[in-house]
């Protein structure tokens, strides 16, 4: 079977994004199969994770694969001085695909260049998070019926938020209008604003966050201020609670608007929002299973037609 990597969302064409969404829809209909029976999926998490790691492992298990790996690099030979190169090459002897999260930007790209098996980037520093982006795209399509011509509000930590950086790149194919809502300390980096200009992506910047600002949103994408990315904890304390979405801010929102969040949530979405019909972040997390099933199969060369005609479905 043809094998390839899933390292950056920037490489995906419009057609490929829609293809993976279509495949994820099939897995939502029938998530339990044995299409990967006999395969081994390695999950190497050099940085903490709950949803991403568990959804990759659940995806592999529900498709009939076996899972190996680690969630704590302290239990690996890296503590003895083993290089990332040697870890990747060693694990490649045991697995058919590696899903890897690493704290260094570009680590997944490096791994993909040396590994003889496919690499899936499960997040590299503040750089990209392409599998999260695919589940975000799937969720947006699921809730809006389209990816075209949407008003998307990105709120909070736009400086370190790899999920919003990936989303900008992916949405370049679909004529979005982005609204960047952040304090100046956490503003969208200039490189991504330049990317918007180079790709004809419309955007506006806001420092205010209130019901008037968000009234025209189709998607409000909240983000956590990431304490682990700050070298100055005083700066973190200044900005951690700047934007909190509360239920009373939603009274003038469009009916179709949905609130997304890559999770975990800290203080940025009040708990009174959870019961609001616009809230969709829990369903979004569930979609991670279907999107990651699609990604794992795709890098292993399993096609959409094979998924549709799969006879190993478990009811």
Structural commentary:
The structure is a single chain. Helix 1 crosses helix 5 and helix 1 (14-29) packs across helix 9 (281-299). The chain has 315 residues and is an alpha/beta fold. Helix content is 35%, strand content 14%.
Descriptive tags:
alpha/beta, 5-stranded parallel sheet, single chain, 315 residues, 9 strands, 4-stranded parallel sheet
Beta fraction of the residues? Answer: 5-15%
- Report the major sheet: 5 strands, parallel
N-C termini distance: 27 Å
Number of continuous helical runs:
10
- Unreliable spans: none
Shape estimate: globular
Mean pLDDT: 91
Radius of gyration: 19 Å
Share of helix, binned: 25-40%
Strand order of the largest sheet: 7-6-5-8-9
The H/E string reads HEHEHEHEHEHEHEEHEHH
Structural class: alpha/beta
DSSP strand count: 9
Secondary structure elements and pairings:
Elements: H1 14-29, E1 40-45, H2 51-62, E2 66-70, H3 84-92, E3 97-102, H4 107-114, E4 119-124, H5 130-144, E5 151-155, H6 162-170, E6 177-181, H7 190-198, E7 202-206, E8 219-222, H8 233-239, E9 258-260, H9 281-299, H10 304-308
Parallel strand pairs: 1-2, 1-3, 3-4, 5-6, 5-8, 6-7, 8-9
At a glance:
This protein is 35% helix and 14% strand.
């Amino acid at each position: 079977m043809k094998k390839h990597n899933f390292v950056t969302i920037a490489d995906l064409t419009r057609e490929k994004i829609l293809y993976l969404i279509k495949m994820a829809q099939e897995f939502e209909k029938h998530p339990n199969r044995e299409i990967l029976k006999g395969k081994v999926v390695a999950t190497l998490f050099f940085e903490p994770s709950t949803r991403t790691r568990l959804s990759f492992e659940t995806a592999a298990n529900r498709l009939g694969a076996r899972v190996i790996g680690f969630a704590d690099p302290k239990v690996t030979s890296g503590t003895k001085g083993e290089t990332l190169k040697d870890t990747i090459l060693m694990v490649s002897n045991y697995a058919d695909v590696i899903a890897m999260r690493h704290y260094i930007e570009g680590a997944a790209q490096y791994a993909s260049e040396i590994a003889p098996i496919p690499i899936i980037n499960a997040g590299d520093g503040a750089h990209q998070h392409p599998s999260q982006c695919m589940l975000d795209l799937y969720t947006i399509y699921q809730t809006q019926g389209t990816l075209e011509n949407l008003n998307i509000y990105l709120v909070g930590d736009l400086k370190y938020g790899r999920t919003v950086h990936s989303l900008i790149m992916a949405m370049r194919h679909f004529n979005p209008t982005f609204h960047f809502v952040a304090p100046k300390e956490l503003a969208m980096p200039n490189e991504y604003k330049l990317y918007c200009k180079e790709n004809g992506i419309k955007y506006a910047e806001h420092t205010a966050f209130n019901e008037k600002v968000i009234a025209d949103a189709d998607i409000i994408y909240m983000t956590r201020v990431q304490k682990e990315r700050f070298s100055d904890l005083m700066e973190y304390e200044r900005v951690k609670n700047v934007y909190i979405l509360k239920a009373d801010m939603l009274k003038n929102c469009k009916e179709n608007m949905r609130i997304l969040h890559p999770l975990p949530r800290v203080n940025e979405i009040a708990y009174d929002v959870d019961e609001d019909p616009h809230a969709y972040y829990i369903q979004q997390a569930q979609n991670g299973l279907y999107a990651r099933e699609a990604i794992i199969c795709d890098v292993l060369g399993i096609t959409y037609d094979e998924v549709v005609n799969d006879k190993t479905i478990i009811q």
